[in-house]
Amino acid sequence: MEKKKVSLVIPMYYEEEVANECYERVQKILSGLEKYDYEIIFINDGSKDKTLEILENIASKDEKVKVISFSRNFGHQAAVTAGLKEVTGDAIIIIDADLQDPPELIPDMLKYWEEGNEVIYGKRKTRKGESAFKLFTAKMFYKTLNALSDVEIPKDTGDFRLVDRKVVDVVNNMPEHNKFLRGLFSWVGFKQMPYEYERQERFAGKTKYPLKKMLKLASDGIISFSTKPLKLVGALGILSIVISILILIYALISYIFKLNNLSAGWTSTIVAITFFAGVQLLSIWIMSEYIGRIYDETKRRPQYIIDKKINIKEEDKEK
Ligand code: UDP
Ligand code: MG
Questions:
Q1: Which residues make up the environment of ion ligand 2, defined by Cβ < 5 Å?
Q2: pLDDT (tens digit, 9 = 90+) per residue, 9-64?
Q3: How far, in Å, are 21, 79, 91, 118, 121 from residue 112 at the CA level?
Q4: Rounded to 5, what percent of the chain is helix, strand, coil?
Q5: Which helix or strand (DSSP H or E) is residue 193 part of?
């Protein structure tokens, strides 16, 4: 019988300090799995340091290592999406390059996969070495996402997970371009299983997720999984009408009973104008977020551009 194959997808952005260590740790675990064949797919997400050089070097010595290199930085989600398109295995594992998600857990996850689970997603019990700010923003992110979105996205999960081939095929065939993977993997259903683990400290280097990228991820997550913000616009409209009626009543009462002798109507006019201008701008902003995404999707531009592929043969995928 042919061995089952495990595919690892590892995105890298400016990871020259961790690339070698990452390969070694992962390779050690995978080569120890006698029951399985394996492949490791590294995606160089447009790093301009030595990351690609290191990966090319590894790939020249180990043919199980495949490399995809982007023409520029397209972001973590795009990198993982590109990797998923190239996998040839039966079980696919998405893991960060910085070893925050210990590769030593892979055999255990495979055991649960053999038992019939189709998506085994890592759930962080603790997160070592991350700033209070990062922890707080991550918490807010999942809170807001779940409050607003139409699918339950498990909190404290990142992209570290083992996914069955069947589910990867489904996600690969999704028509949308900007894929918010952890949401999609939850949205598709199938047999899901949380897998609790201790998130480690980054092996070396700094986080590649500055606040700006996190905010982008958060808004992608919310907007691709929810239309509630649009409904919020409606609610704001009703609220503003109610408030304007109250202002009107107040104005009438003060006029009839001559409660004050400020130049008539000035305050209420200004209040009304500024208030409604605010409501309108806010509404337009929310709508423009959606329209922006619709525009993006209709352009049908690729989510990423591949500059180079190493050790990847098209025939492999046919099998
Ligand atoms: N990453 C990427 N492209 C980016 C940002 C990050 O491929 O634009 C990769 C990065 O190399 C790492 C993973 O995504 O393997 C997670 O990033 P990081 O560890 O910096 O995020 P954090 O763990 O701090 O949330
Ligand atoms: Mg990390």
A1: 96, 98, 100
A2: 999 999 999 999 999 999 999 998 888 999 999 999 999 999 999 999 999 999 89
A3: 27, 26, 11, 9, 11
A4: 50, 20, 30
A5: strand 192-199
- Please report the atom of ligand 1 found closest to the CA of residue 158: 25
User: What's the Rg (C-alpha) of the chain?
Assistant: 25
Q: Atom 23 (ligand 1): residue with closest C-alpha?
A: 207
Domain residue spans of the chain: 4-226+302-317, 228-299
CATH architecture of 4-226+302-317: Alpha-Beta Complex (3.90)
Per DSSP, the three-state class of 206 is coil
Ligand 1 atom having least distance to the Cα of 214: 25
Q: Which two tokens stand for residue 141?
A: 């992110």
* Amino acid (one-letter) located at 87: V
**pTM recorded for the entire structure:** 0.75
Neighbouring residues of 231: CB distance < 8 A, sequence distance ≥ 6: none
Tens-place pLDDT, residues 222-268: 777 777 777 777 777 777 777 777 777 777 787 777 776 656 666 66
User: 254 CA to middle of ligand 1, Å?
Assistant: 60
